[in-house]
Every structure is written in C-alpha cells, then in structure tokens.
Amino acid sequence: MPAPRNRNANFRLCSSPGGRPSRKRKPGKQAKARCALCKTLLGGVPNRSHSDLAKLSKTQKRPERIYGGVLCSGCVAQIVKDKVRLQQGLISREETDFRRLKFITGAKHAAK
Fold this sequence. Notes:
Elements (H helix, E strand, L loop, with lengths): L10 E5 L5 E5 L24 H5 L3 H4 L11 H16 L9 H9 L6
Antiparallel strand pairs: 1-2
Helix pairs in contact: 3-4
C-alpha cells in the first residue's frame, strides 16, 4: 500500500459543472513499442500520449519501411531473406520458423 502522502498522486481534483468537487484519474504512461517477434525496443517510434501522437505526421509516427513500427530491422532482414529463399525453392515452408511465417506470407514488396 502506498504511503499516505502518495495515495492521491494518480488523481487530480476538479470541479463539476454543478460546482461539486470531483476526482479525475490521471492517464498513465504509454508502453514503449516493442518488436512483435524478438520483443526488443523499436527505434524510430515515439513514446508519447495518444493526443500528442495524433498531432504528429504519419512519417514521424513510425519508420518508412516494410513492417515499420511492428518489427525491428533485424527481424525484417531475416523475413526478407526467408521470403527470397522460399520463392527460389531453397527452403520449404516447414523449414521456416512458424512465428515468422505470418510475416513472410504477408510481405508484398520484400523481393523485387
């Protein structure tokens, strides 16, 4: 249980339109973006509140590459390699990692 001096740190007092005092909960911090496969922190993705993110342009919210803002650059490179190997018949679908298979089949512009 928090100390008495910190119990109301998550709330702020404000008055309702009728003049009665009420307590509103402060919004918590947003979690940092992580890679969907290896769970490392993603670079190039800002960690801001929803209202601050709405003010940013689309290119400032995530990187401009395939699976930008979802996968890290290392995982994207591995997916591109696996997609090319699948297309050329060097490996089969059973030999690829099943966690990466969803991203491999969804990658449209991986191998040009």
